[in-house]
Every structure is written in structure tokens, then in C-alpha cells.
Prior knowledge:
The protein is an alpha/beta fold. It has helices at about 5-10, 30-45, 60-75, 90-105, 120-135, 150-155, 170-180, 195-200, 215-225, 230-250, 260-270, 290-310, and strands at about 15, 45-50, 80-85, 105-110, 135-140, 160-165, 185-190, 205-210. It has a single domain, classed as Alpha-Beta Barrel (TIM Barrel). About 50% of the residues lie in helices and about 10% in strands. The mean pLDDT is about 95. Keywords: Lyase. GO terms for molecular function: 2-dehydro-3-deoxy-phosphogluconate aldolase activity; 4-hydroxy-tetrahydrodipicolinate synthase activity; 5-dehydro-4-deoxyglucarate dehydratase activity; N-acetylneuraminate lyase activity.
Amino acid sequence: MQYQRIKSDLRGVAFTNPTPFDESGEEIRHDALASNVRHVVDAGGRVIIPCGNTGEYYSLTNEERVAVVETVAEAVGDEATIVGGVGGSTQTAIELASAYEDVGADAIMVMHPVHTYIHQVGLIDYYREIVESTDLGVVLYKRGPAVTRELLAEITGYENVVGVKYAVNDVKGFSEMVETIDADVVWSNGIAERFAPAFAVEGAEGFTTGIGNFVPEQVLALMDALEAEAWDRARELREQIRPFENLREEPGEENDLAAANNVPAVKHAMDLAGLHGGPVREPLVELSETDRRRAEEYYERIREATDEHATAR
Length: 313
């Protein structure tokens, strides 16, 4: 496997793409999915992550997950690296990795563990078995304390472990891990654009994005600014994006659980952009009318700022 090529692509923006459903929410629109990812790749995207949290991984069956990865792989061919999300039981993750390889994936991303009861030794065994079962590249996804520094230090030693998606708002912890874990992996900021400049300073070579599905050019421009260490331009782009990202972090109406707006906000903006967002599946719900109007306002601000910059050049 071409692990160095995968790492090279991960040193940039990784697009976590939504799964478009039909109006009933029961069927996946594979034609729309293919069109959506082509839009990203045609704009310059080089990493697509189907079946992540933005893709509503836990609302999909295994059959649907494999079909989604196959559609994405067929749509983009060799133009981008495909990193399919896997999770659940050890055997489920291993079987998905094998199926993804059969349909054209380049790598897997092991979703953050959601088991109610976890032992640190058992969790290391879980990751080790998955990594040792596949020749695909492996990205480790840290979204909370269960994925410890000790676990990452142990598992990143495998040749096929190519990256770490660090999705915790803790720059101090990230910096310490990058400096103290001796591993040939790509460290990626997994909490997107708002914190991309800070994480870049501390060693993040890439970041993941959800809003890049509908404004890929703007997100890729932010990555270009980070690579050039053009910090004023990076912060300018970040500020254009911040209101929409703040909206995604909110729980929505009649809800106390964090970030329920995340996926429906992206899907609504994709519809606004002439792409294919569509409805979400439970346990998510659609945006409230108030939040829909805010999403539309923030989307227009991003587009207007981009047009103004293009005119000024």
C-alpha cells in the first residue's frame, strides 16, 4: 500500500462528506452522493472521508456504509484518497475494513469508541486487532479522553497507521502529544476551521472540514494560507467561516445535547449551494426555522466575502 501517498494527501484538508438521503430519509441517493464528492474533488479536495460523524455513521447499516464508500471511490477514482469510517465491535470494524478495501478505499478511520464500559488495556487490544487485520492505511480518531496518549503512542508505531485526527478542543494536549509521541504519522486538527491556525502552529499538518462540502474553495484557501504562514489571511478566512461553525456547535431548539445542529446545518447549506444535502436520520432532527434562517445568512456572508476578495485582487 502507498502509505506515503496517503500521508501526503492528509497534509491538507480532509472533507468529511454527508450522506444524502431521499425525502423520506429511507434510501441513500447515490447519484447525489457521487455529484457531491465530484464537486469537492473538482475544486481541489484530495481526501474524502465517507461514513464519518458528518456522514451519520451510526445511522447507517453496514450494507449502506459499504455502498457509500463504493460510490465515493467510483466517483473520484485515483484523484483523491478515500478514508472510510469504521467502528463498533472489533469484528464489525474488521469486516468493514475488508469490504471497503474490496470497493476501492485507500484507508480507514477508526471511529472514537462509544462502548459504555471501557478498559484501557482492552481498548489498546481493540485498536491493535483492527490495525493488524488490514493493509489499508489507518487514521486514529481521538474525540475524548478514552483515546489516551499511551494508546496513541502504542498504536501509531504500526507502519500502516498514517494519521491521527485530534478532535478535542485542547491545544495544550495536542502540542504535548505531537512533541512527545515519536511516530511517522500526520497529525490533523479534527475540530475544523475555527481552530486551524492555533493547531497549525502546534504541528497540525491538516484539518478536517464539514462546511468544505459546500464552500470548498474557501476552505482550501485557508489551508493554503496556513501552509504559507500567512497568518493574517488565515485569520481573515477563519472569521468569515466562524459564525457558521458556531451555529453547527449549538444544540438546536428543545435540546440540551451538544452540537445537534452540526450535520443538518451542513446539509441545509449544501442545498443552498445547489448540491444535495437532504434530510437527516434520527437521532438527529432538522434545523429549526430560526436556525435555518441563520444558516442562510451565514452562508451568504461567506459567499459575499469571497466575491469581495476576488474583486479586490
